[in-house]
UniProtKB/TrEMBL annotation:
Domain DUF6316: 6-57
Protein name listed in UniProt: DUF6316 domain-containing protein
Source organism superkingdom: Bacteria
């Protein structure tokens, strides 16, 4: 498990669980926002799905600033 600080975190690293889980024989990943994605045929495919999801999220514009 990764126990490194994320950007903006200070102090003790909070508990983190795996983003991946299996229900029956199908794999899913979950996001920090509580979005579950799947099913995938294997954990490896779920990991690839998460990488693709994160690459798309990085392309989204930042939240608009209120004036």
């Amino acid at each position: 498990m990764d126990i490194q600080h994320r950007d903006g975190e200070n102090g003790t690293v909070p508990f983190r669980s795996s983003r991946f889980f299996c229900v029956g024989s199908k794999w899913y990943f979950t996001t920090r926002e509580g979005f579950d994605s799947g099913p995938f045929a294997s954990r490896q495919r779920a990991e690839t799905g998460l990488k693709r999801f994160l690459s798309v999220v990085r392309l989204l514009p930042a939240e608009p600033q209120l004036h």
